[in-house]
Specification:
By secondary structure, the chain is of the alpha/beta class. It has 2 domains: 125 residues, 3-Layer(aba) Sandwich (Rossmann fold); 65 residues, Putative phosphatase, domain 2 (DNA polymerase, domain 1, Orthogonal Bundle), CATH 1.10.150. It has 11 helices and 7 strands.
Protein backbone atom coordinates (compact mmCIF):
# COMPACT_ATOMS: atom_id res chain seq x y z
CA UNK A 1 0.00 0.00 0.00
CA UNK A 2 1.37 3.38 -1.03
CA UNK A 3 1.13 6.00 1.71
CA UNK A 4 0.56 6.11 5.44
CA UNK A 5 -2.42 7.78 7.05
CA UNK A 6 -3.79 8.53 10.49
CA UNK A 7 -6.87 6.34 11.04
CA UNK A 8 -7.88 8.30 14.13
CA UNK A 9 -8.99 11.36 12.13
CA UNK A 10 -10.69 9.64 9.19
CA UNK A 11 -14.42 10.38 9.13
CA UNK A 12 -15.28 9.45 5.52
CA UNK A 13 -13.87 7.61 2.53
CA UNK A 14 -13.52 8.99 -1.00
CA UNK A 15 -12.89 6.66 -3.94
CA UNK A 16 -11.88 7.12 -7.54
CA UNK A 17 -13.88 4.84 -9.84
CA UNK A 18 -12.00 4.03 -13.05
CA UNK A 19 -8.99 1.89 -12.18
CA UNK A 20 -10.27 1.35 -8.63
CA UNK A 21 -13.85 0.08 -8.87
CA UNK A 22 -14.00 -0.77 -12.57
CA UNK A 23 -11.38 -1.39 -15.24
CA UNK A 24 -11.09 0.52 -18.50
CA UNK A 25 -8.76 0.53 -21.49
CA UNK A 26 -8.63 3.18 -24.23
CA UNK A 27 -7.02 0.61 -26.56
CA UNK A 28 -10.55 -0.70 -27.16
CA UNK A 29 -11.69 2.73 -28.34
CA UNK A 30 -8.75 2.98 -30.73
CA UNK A 31 -9.48 -0.50 -32.09
CA UNK A 32 -13.08 0.50 -32.72
CA UNK A 33 -12.04 3.71 -34.49
CA UNK A 34 -9.24 2.20 -36.58
CA UNK A 35 -11.50 1.12 -39.50
CA UNK A 36 -13.11 4.58 -39.47
CA UNK A 37 -9.85 6.52 -39.70
CA UNK A 38 -7.59 7.32 -42.62
CA UNK A 39 -4.61 7.17 -40.24
CA UNK A 40 -2.49 4.04 -39.78
CA UNK A 41 -3.07 2.32 -36.44
CA UNK A 42 0.18 3.53 -34.89
CA UNK A 43 -0.48 7.13 -35.97
CA UNK A 44 -4.03 6.90 -34.63
CA UNK A 45 -2.68 5.94 -31.22
CA UNK A 46 -0.25 8.86 -31.26
CA UNK A 47 -2.98 11.30 -32.34
CA UNK A 48 -5.21 10.48 -29.37
CA UNK A 49 -4.30 12.00 -26.01
CA UNK A 50 -5.85 13.31 -22.82
CA UNK A 51 -5.28 16.83 -24.10
CA UNK A 52 -6.93 20.13 -23.22
CA UNK A 53 -10.07 19.28 -25.21
CA UNK A 54 -10.30 15.95 -23.37
CA UNK A 55 -10.00 17.76 -20.04
CA UNK A 56 -12.54 20.44 -21.04
CA UNK A 57 -14.95 17.64 -21.95
CA UNK A 58 -14.47 16.12 -18.49
CA UNK A 59 -15.22 19.50 -16.90
CA UNK A 60 -18.41 19.81 -18.93
CA UNK A 61 -17.02 22.75 -20.88
CA UNK A 62 -17.41 20.86 -24.18
CA UNK A 63 -20.53 18.89 -25.04
CA UNK A 64 -20.19 15.35 -26.35
CA UNK A 65 -20.95 16.56 -29.87
CA UNK A 66 -18.28 19.26 -29.63
CA UNK A 67 -15.69 16.84 -28.30
CA UNK A 68 -16.51 14.17 -30.87
CA UNK A 69 -15.98 16.81 -33.55
CA UNK A 70 -12.46 17.42 -32.20
CA UNK A 71 -11.83 13.65 -32.33
CA UNK A 72 -13.15 13.53 -35.89
CA UNK A 73 -10.57 16.10 -36.94
CA UNK A 74 -7.60 14.89 -34.87
CA UNK A 75 -8.09 11.21 -35.62
CA UNK A 76 -9.19 11.66 -39.26
CA UNK A 77 -12.44 9.81 -38.60
CA UNK A 78 -15.06 9.47 -41.31
CA UNK A 79 -17.81 8.67 -38.85
CA UNK A 80 -21.01 9.96 -37.30
CA UNK A 81 -21.24 11.09 -33.70
CA UNK A 82 -22.99 7.80 -32.93
CA UNK A 83 -20.14 5.74 -34.37
CA UNK A 84 -17.53 7.79 -32.54
CA UNK A 85 -19.45 7.47 -29.29
CA UNK A 86 -19.67 3.69 -29.71
CA UNK A 87 -15.88 3.57 -29.72
CA UNK A 88 -15.64 6.14 -26.95
CA UNK A 89 -17.73 3.92 -24.68
CA UNK A 90 -15.98 0.68 -25.68
CA UNK A 91 -13.30 1.33 -23.06
CA UNK A 92 -15.24 -0.14 -20.13
CA UNK A 93 -14.14 -3.56 -18.97
CA UNK A 94 -14.91 -5.64 -15.88
CA UNK A 95 -16.21 -4.40 -12.55
CA UNK A 96 -13.60 -4.84 -9.82
CA UNK A 97 -15.92 -6.77 -7.58
CA UNK A 98 -13.46 -7.30 -4.72
CA UNK A 99 -13.07 -3.57 -4.23
CA UNK A 100 -16.78 -2.86 -4.58
CA UNK A 101 -17.51 -5.55 -1.99
CA UNK A 102 -15.04 -3.83 0.35
CA UNK A 103 -16.70 -0.44 -0.20
CA UNK A 104 -20.11 -1.86 0.60
CA UNK A 105 -18.73 -3.44 3.79
CA UNK A 106 -16.92 -0.26 4.86
CA UNK A 107 -20.04 1.83 4.40
CA UNK A 108 -21.50 0.20 7.49
CA UNK A 109 -18.86 2.11 9.48
CA UNK A 110 -18.02 5.25 7.49
CA UNK A 111 -19.71 7.32 4.77
CA UNK A 112 -18.35 6.42 1.35
CA UNK A 113 -18.17 8.84 -1.56
CA UNK A 114 -16.80 8.60 -5.09
CA UNK A 115 -15.07 11.25 -7.21
CA UNK A 116 -14.58 10.47 -10.88
CA UNK A 117 -13.06 12.42 -13.74
CA UNK A 118 -15.76 11.57 -16.26
CA UNK A 119 -17.73 13.15 -19.10
CA UNK A 120 -21.47 12.95 -19.69
CA UNK A 121 -21.25 10.13 -22.25
CA UNK A 122 -18.94 7.98 -20.14
CA UNK A 123 -21.00 8.70 -17.01
CA UNK A 124 -24.14 7.38 -18.68
CA UNK A 125 -22.27 4.36 -20.07
CA UNK A 126 -20.71 3.21 -16.79
CA UNK A 127 -23.94 3.79 -14.86
CA UNK A 128 -25.64 1.38 -17.25
CA UNK A 129 -22.73 -1.09 -17.31
CA UNK A 130 -22.19 -1.26 -13.55
CA UNK A 131 -25.54 -0.93 -11.75
CA UNK A 132 -23.98 -1.74 -8.35
CA UNK A 133 -21.72 1.28 -8.30
CA UNK A 134 -23.85 4.32 -7.57
CA UNK A 135 -25.95 2.63 -4.85
CA UNK A 136 -22.68 1.64 -3.10
CA UNK A 137 -21.86 5.30 -2.36
CA UNK A 138 -23.51 8.06 -0.38
CA UNK A 139 -22.81 10.34 -3.34
CA UNK A 140 -20.86 10.24 -6.59
CA UNK A 141 -19.08 13.44 -7.63
CA UNK A 142 -18.55 13.62 -11.40
CA UNK A 143 -16.12 16.17 -12.81
CA UNK A 144 -18.52 17.03 -15.63
CA UNK A 145 -21.20 17.91 -13.06
CA UNK A 146 -19.06 20.07 -10.77
CA UNK A 147 -16.96 21.66 -13.53
CA UNK A 148 -13.68 20.67 -11.88
CA UNK A 149 -11.42 17.64 -12.27
CA UNK A 150 -8.68 15.89 -10.37
CA UNK A 151 -5.91 16.71 -9.54
CA UNK A 152 -7.00 20.39 -9.39
CA UNK A 153 -6.91 21.75 -5.86
CA UNK A 154 -10.25 23.49 -6.40
CA UNK A 155 -11.81 20.13 -7.26
CA UNK A 156 -10.81 18.55 -3.95
CA UNK A 157 -11.82 21.70 -2.04
CA UNK A 158 -15.26 21.59 -3.68
CA UNK A 159 -15.78 17.94 -2.78
CA UNK A 160 -14.73 18.55 0.83
CA UNK A 161 -17.19 21.45 1.11
CA UNK A 162 -20.00 19.38 -0.36
CA UNK A 163 -19.30 16.50 2.04
CA UNK A 164 -18.98 18.94 4.94
CA UNK A 165 -15.70 17.68 6.36
CA UNK A 166 -12.20 19.16 6.59
CA UNK A 167 -9.74 17.66 4.09
CA UNK A 168 -7.74 15.70 6.66
CA UNK A 169 -10.90 13.81 7.67
CA UNK A 170 -11.17 12.24 4.22
CA UNK A 171 -9.19 9.20 3.12
CA UNK A 172 -8.91 9.22 -0.68
CA UNK A 173 -8.20 6.20 -2.91
CA UNK A 174 -6.96 6.63 -6.49
CA UNK A 175 -4.84 4.61 -8.89
CA UNK A 176 -3.04 7.64 -10.40
CA UNK A 177 -0.05 9.13 -8.61
CA UNK A 178 -0.86 12.67 -9.78
CA UNK A 179 -4.34 12.50 -8.26
CA UNK A 180 -2.99 11.15 -4.99
CA UNK A 181 -0.41 13.96 -4.91
CA UNK A 182 -3.11 16.55 -5.67
CA UNK A 183 -5.30 15.25 -2.87
CA UNK A 184 -2.44 15.33 -0.37
CA UNK A 185 -1.50 18.85 -1.45
CA UNK A 186 -5.04 19.88 -0.55
CA UNK A 187 -4.75 18.23 2.89
CA UNK A 188 -6.56 14.95 2.27
CA UNK A 189 -5.07 11.68 3.39
CA UNK A 190 -4.60 9.36 0.43
CA UNK A 191 -3.73 5.85 -0.69
CA UNK A 192 -2.52 4.99 -4.18
CA UNK A 193 -4.33 1.88 -5.36
CA UNK A 194 -2.40 -0.71 -7.35
CA UNK A 195 -4.80 -3.57 -6.60
CA UNK A 196 -7.83 -4.34 -4.42
CA UNK A 197 -5.39 -5.42 -1.70
CA UNK A 198 -4.42 -1.76 -1.17
CA UNK A 199 -8.03 -0.82 -0.50
CA UNK A 200 -8.65 -3.78 1.77
CA UNK A 201 -5.44 -3.13 3.72
CA UNK A 202 -6.43 0.47 4.40
CA UNK A 203 -9.94 -0.50 5.41
CA UNK A 204 -8.55 -3.04 7.86
CA UNK A 205 -6.47 -0.27 9.47
CA UNK A 206 -9.75 1.60 9.91
CA UNK A 207 -11.41 -1.49 11.42
CA UNK A 208 -13.94 -1.47 8.58
CA UNK A 209 -12.96 -4.99 7.49
CA UNK A 210 -11.95 -8.04 9.52
Amino acid sequence: MNGRFDPSVVKALLFDLGGVVFAFDFAHALAHWAPLSSLPADALGLAFSHDEDYQRHERGELSSAQYFDTLRRKLALNASDEAIEAGWNAIFREEIGETLDAVEAARRYLPCYAFSNTNKSHHAAWRAAYPRIEPAFDRVFASSDIGLRKPERAAFERVCREIGLPPQALLFFDDLAENVAGARACGLQAVQVHSPADVRGALRQLSCLP
